[in-house]
Amino acid sequence: MNGSALPVQRVLRVFVLLAAVGFAAGPEPAPAAATGAAPAPALQNGTIRFGSPQAISDAGVFIGREYGYFREQGLDVETIPFQSGPNTIPALASGELETAGGTISVALLNALERGIEIKMVADKGTSRPGFEFVQVPVRRDLLDSGAVRSIADLRGRPVAVASLQSGAESLVAHVLARGGLSITDVELQPLGYGDMVVAFGNNAIDAANIIEPALSAAIDRNLVGTWEPGRSSAAFGGVYQAATVVYSGQFANQADLARRFMVAYLRGVRAYNDAFVKGEGRGAIVRILAENTSVKDPAVYERMNMAGLDPDGRIARQSLQLDVDYFRQMGYYTGPVTLNDLIDTSFAESAVQQLGPYQ
Question: Is 117 in the same domain as 16?
Answer without folding.
Answer: yes
